[in-house]
Design goal:
5% of the residues lie in helices and 38% in strands. By secondary structure, it is mainly beta.
């Protein structure tokens, strides 16, 4: 069957592709009227239209094109035209033929691959304002079994559930990547399924026409309706309710009908129906309705002939959708959209209230004429209906109408009035569905929705929706980053579903929009970074995506009125020192959560497209811009062009241990895989073995003398090493899907692939084990954030990567500019890991410090895995009862802005106005005048130990003048050295004056930044506020921070903080004596030491957080230090109860 399918596809002529003619920028474009358009011409038309329009308005229609461009730009021929399905499938056949020929041939030394899906199958929303998992175009319920449901995705094929949407199974992975926009199941035989292929809304994948399965979706065959040209789209497909041989299919070149189960098809009405609808009249299948973008047709002879109906309908439109209902078979509803809108004028309409809603129309006489029901309610809320538009009528109530574009709207009176059911930015609401509604339909009284985020079902007329997307791995990834310490830590960017963070086997959707390029700090596997489109905003999480911890805007020098920053996918790259770089017109480095220009100026023409950094020398950096490769040997300050490729460079990869060896891939189906042995000045072509498909990304596997390289292409992954003359497919179990990114984790011997439509996949890769090799896995301590006190004990995790036991490791390390050395002696077995504590570093001052560590052993095989570097921050320890008046420089606290340079909190004597500080030094939100808009700034306290006091409280003086319910001040606390923060307290007479949230603000829609506990408005009297801290009596290192947050407009004079203190009742002298007992290091990898201060200790016990005792130990003699080994305990928080002659003290410890 598969061979028959291929032969039919490959026997026809080659075509060309164009983006949808209904897109608003093409309506009045003369260039768009050309019969053939190159991709470059398509982009030029688009860019001209958007040069004077705000693309950031939600639903503007801008993003769907950019996604389309990004997908197809690497599938163009050498003339610039998108290749046809026949050319693409010929490449697939070539790949499969080579695989068949190599079986049993010893010449090929290809190592085995065994790809496994990693997801996302499910996710938790930890920060996204528009949570979702993947786009769904169509939903179909088996008419013979309501528990069997099918969904079609734009790039992930068709999926089947046999338990009403609880679990999903892919049904088309063996085919070249397809989208599915229409599904129908034979009402007499559930094994017979028809699918309309391609992506009729976004054109993300090819359409090859209609495919048919006769075995329940296990295999697929072509029908008589097959396309080989790229400018063909297919939408609705329906089956006659009593004759299973009659079907209709809506395509971009006509409405097709078959009377023999798909063997042959007849074009019964020409026109572009792919974005419209086709329906039978309920109870009378001789009547067929269909719509193009502009015309409604009716047939009364089962589709043999059609008549255009105009009565009551608009004379022209941009897109129509229709639906009918068995609740009243004579009713026909039409939803109309009109794109020809005036240009955006920010002067007269700054919020861009233009919309394309033309009207909702109803016929009460089976489509003979129509009446306008509503054309004033902005139910589309956008201008993107060319991309997504949906209409459904209840199958039990003919007056109940649902529409979808940005959100879902509902009418209970036949379309006369509408109410919005949900909001795309309210993911916790019961009615939530992800934005961009492509599909709405009733099956047996239940409403199904397909959107950019997944598939949803409502059983109660839209009162609530249930997300059924779980286990459907259909995410469209742009990029993925994998921690070098663990393949179980990764973060990636999804089309319209934001940033997805992975750790501990779970996916977390931690920010929204289009997630783009991502990175993980090379020295902290939990420090994630993720861009949205154009690099407009960077979202940081220091806890593996559990929440957003910082937000960084694009550099102001790179943005303008209609310029958000960089390229659609703005590159993000980290080096071995933990530094993070981004590429706009210039190269930038992330410093204190702010982009600081690194390059001396712009690099080439336009924005940087790729960044690569040598794994063995952070000073060697490459960037590309179009066809030009640039080299820097001074850490990105100065760049010089070194090479010009024949087509745009799509990826750059440095050899893992030799800075002179460099790999490139270039754009187009005739693009190349290139290698240079002289640092990029000259290249050789090594493409042989990869068919004419897009080469998206290349990676080199280090610590292997065969030098394996992997290339991600439009048809999976290819492999080559020094023992092979050509590339070979490396794709066992991997679907035939576009691989957009590859990452290697040598620690776990994994290759990770990001795909555009089938999520994340992972396979084992061969790793060589040398005789002798030590690997510095990571610096576990000091932590990057707040280390309390003036000393730290570096904890270094190392691994024996060799076969021989390691007995000695030399550590050379530098703290700031001071060098140190240390030699560890012991026994470390082959492939084992251990943590080495280096001698304590003392005398550190408040602020940032740098630690660089290098490890060596005798005969070390791979020196490229020996180094690590982190920047860490020291915070002072605060005294209980000591009031900080901020009167001198020694009283200064740590303060910073989120996402911008400097700090809004400034230690100053404020003069004049409401914030006058009466000659006292305070921390104020400005030296004078008003605070700026759109700023979030933090004032961080010292570290406090609350275990030596009773009835602790936080107290400070505050006066404020803030825009009511828009600008706020509140307090947060952290008990894990700044990794996680929570709001302290609630509204009360001595604390906050507001508990308002955006959800409780009603029609005012204010308090959009409010956590529900804050100061807002004005209190010009310096007031002492306090809050009890009894809940934190066991905390030895608690930190507070005062948060100031202003919104996008309207500002006032700000806030002053003074006389900050942590108070409490000092415990008795015996309590003080007990408190002198210390436990260190804390946190620890499991080995703790109790310094008794010569106090007699009788026994000790250790409990976990549930109260379960995990250790009990009697102490039989006085000891100055007692070692406690919890190496076998799980990581987490424990409580050590120490029993002495004078009392009992409990210490909170953390095993990591």
């Amino acid at each position: 069957m598969k061979n028959k399918y291929l032969l039919l596809l490959l026997s026809t002529t080659i075509g060309f592709s164009q983006y949808f003619s209904s897109a608003p920028w093409k309506i009045n474009s003369n260039v768009a009227k050309k019969e053939k358009l190159t991709l470059e011409e398509e982009v030029a038309i688009f860019n001209e239209y958007w040069s004077t329009r705000d693309k950031n308005v939600k639903g503007s229609g801008h993003k769907p094109f950019k996604r389309w461009e990004n997908y197809w730009k690497n599938l163009v021929d050498d003339q610039g035209y998108i290749v046809s399905p026949s050319e693409f499938y010929q490449a697939w056949q070539e790949k499969n033929t080579v695989k068949l020929n190599k079986n049993g041939n010893a010449v090929f030394s290809l190592p085995p691959s065994n790809w496994q899906p990693v997801g996302p199958l499910t996710h938790t929303n930890t920060g996204s304002w528009s949570s979702g998992q993947g786009r769904v175009n169509v939903v179909y319920q088996d008419p013979n079994n309501a528990n069997t449901v099918y969904i079609g995705s734009p790039a992930g094929g068709i999926w089947k559930s046999t338990d009403a949407g609880v679990n999903w199974t892919p049904m088309s992975d063996y085919l070249p990547q397809i989208g599915v926009s229409g599904i129908v199941v034979d009402h007499t035989n559930s094994n017979v399924i028809y699918i309309a292929t391609g992506d009729n809304d976004g054109n993300d994948t090819y359409s090859v026409g209609v495919l048919k399965s006769t075995d329940g979706g296990t295999t697929w065959n072509t029908t008589g309706l097959s396309f080989t040209t790229t400018n063909r789209y297919v939408g609705d497909i329906i089956m006659h309710p009593t004759n299973n041989l009659i079907l209709f299919c809506a395509t971009s070149v006509g409405l097709y009908k078959t009377t023999n189960g798909g063997s042959t098809w007849t074009n019964v009405r020409s026109g572009n129906f792919s974005k419209g609808s086709v329906r039978f009249k309920p109870n009378d299948p001789s009547v067929v309705y269909c719509v193009t973008n502009t015309i409604f047709y009716k047939s009364t002879d089962t589709g043999s002939t059609f008549t255009q109906i105009t009565s009551g309908l608009p004379s022209t439109s941009s897109r129509l959708r229709l639906d009918v209902t068995p609740a009243n078979p004579n009713y026909v509803y039409i939803l109309s959209h009109w794109d020809n809108l005036p240009a955006f004028d920010p002067a007269t309409d700054p919020d861009d209230n233009r919309n394309g809603f033309q009207g909702i129309y109803r016929s009460e006489n089976s489509g003979d004429n129509f009446t306008l029901r509503n054309n004033t309610t902005n139910i589309l809320e956008s201008n993107q209906a060319y991309y997504d538009l949906a209409l459904a009528v209840s199958d039990t109530n003919a007056e109940e109408v649902y529409t979808g574009c940005l959100n879902i709207w509902k009418s209970t009176n036949g379309g006369t009035n509408f109410t919005k059911l949900n909001n795309w930015s309210s993911p916790t609401a019961a009615t939530y569905t992800h934005a961009d509604i492509h599909f709405l339909k009733f099956y047996n009284g239940n409403l199904f929705c397909g959107s950019d985020g997944g598939v949803y079902k409502s059983t109660n007329a839209g009162t609530s929706f249930t997300d059924l997307t779980a286990t459907a791995q259909i995410s469209q990834y742009y990029k993925i980053a994998v921690s070098k310490q663990s393949a179980g830590n990764m973060v990636g960017g999804l089309q319209d579903n934001g940033g997805y963070a992975y750790s501990s086997g779970n996916w977390k959707n931690y920010y929204g929009a289009d997630g783009m390029d991502t990175a993980i700090n090379s020295n902290d596997k939990n420090a994630y970074y993720g861009f949205i489109q154009y690099g407009g905003t960077l979202y940081l999480s220091n806890n593996a995506g559990n929440n957003i911890t910082s937000i960084v805007s694009a550099p102001s020098a790179e943005t303008g009125t209609f310029d958000d920053g960089g390229n659609w996918i703005t590159p993000l790259k980290g080096n071995n020192s933990g530094e993070i770089f981004s590429g706009y017109g210039r190269l930038y480095k992330l410093v204190a959560n702010n982009w600081v220009q690194q390059s001396s100026g712009t690099i080439g023409s336009g924005d940087i497209e790729n960044i690569e950094i040598s794994p063995v020398n952070d000073d060697i950096m490459y960037v590309s811009n179009g066809t030009t490769l640039f080299l820097s040997i001074d850490r990105g300050i100065n760049f010089n062009p070194v090479y010009t490729a024949a087509s745009t460079i799509t990826s750059i990869e440095c050899h893992s241990s030799n800075s002179n060896i460099l790999y490139l891939t270039t754009q187009g189906t005739t693009g190349k895989v290139l290698v240079s042995n002289d640092a990029g000045f000259n290249f050789n072509d090594i493409t042989s073995g990869i068919p004419n498909i897009g080469k998206n990304v290349i990676v080199h596997q280090g610590q292997n003398t065969d030098n394996p390289i992997y290339v991600g292409t439009s048809l999976g992954v290819f492999y080559k090493d020094d023992t092979m003359a050509t590339f070979q497919a490396f794709d066992t179990n991997l679907p035939n899907v576009s691989v957009t990114d590859l990452e290697i984790n040598l620690n776990d011997a994994k290759l990770v692939a990001a795909t555009y439509g089938r999520g994340i996949w992972q396979t084992d890769i061969p790793v060589q084990v040398p005789n002798d090799d030590v690997k510095l896995v990571q610096i576990q301590s000091p932590r990057i954030l707040y280390n309390c006190g003036s000393s730290v004990i570096p904890e270094i995790e190392i691994k024996n990567n060799g076969q021989n036991t390691i007995t000695s490791v030399n550590f050379n390390y530098t703290v700031d500019t001071t060098p140190y050395s240390y030699t560890w002696n012991g026994n470390l077995a082959s492939l084992a890991t251990t943590i080495i504590n280096l001698p304590a570093i003392t005398g550190l001052t408040k602020g940032d410090h740098n630690l660089s560590v290098s490890t060596t052993i005798t005969n070390d095989a791979f020196p490229d895995n020996n180094d690590a570097n982190i920047t860490f921050e020291i915070n002072e320890i605060g005294g209980i009862g000591i009031v900080n008046t901020f009167s001198s420089t020694t009283d200064e606290l740590i303060s910073f802005n989120e996402g911008s340079a400097g700090s809004q909190w400034v230690r100053t004597v404020r003069t004049g106005g409401l914030m006058d500080s009466a000659g006292n030094s305070v921390y104020s939100t400005n030296l004078s005048n008003n605070y700026p808009n759109n700023i979030k700034s933090y004032l961080v306290s010292q570290c406090y130990d609350l275990t030596s006091i009773s009835n602790p409280e936080i107290r400070f003086s505050l006066k404020y003048d803030l825009e009511l319910n828009w600008d706020i001040v509140y307090v947060e606390y952290s008990t894990d050295f700044g990794s996680n923060w929570s709001v302290l307290g609630e509204m009360g007479p001595n604390w906050y004056n507001s508990d308002r949230t955006n959800a409780s603000s009603g029609a005012s829609d204010d308090c959009q930044n409010c956590p529900g506990a804050q100061w807002t408005g004005t209190n010009s009297v310096n007031t002492s506020y306090f809050y009890p801290l009894n809940a934190f009596n066991a905390e030895t290192n608690i930190i507070f921070r005062i948060v100031f947050h202003s919104d996008e407009s309207v500002n006032k004079t700000g806030a002053n903080i003074d006389d900050f203190v942590i108070n409490g009742t000092v415990l008795s002298s015996s309590s003080f004596e007990l408190d002198s007992i210390t436990v260190y290091p804390n946190p620890s990898n499991g080995l703790f030491t109790i310094n008794t201060k010569n106090i007699e200790i009788n026994s000790l016990e250790v409990f976990d957080i549930t109260g379960k005792r995990i250790l009990e130990r009697k102490i039989h003699q006085s000891q100055e230090e007692i070692d406690v080994n919890l190496s076998n305990a799980s990581n987490g928080v424990y409580f050590m109860k120490i029993n002495t002659e004078t009392g009992i003290i409990t210490k909170r410890i953390l095993k990591k």
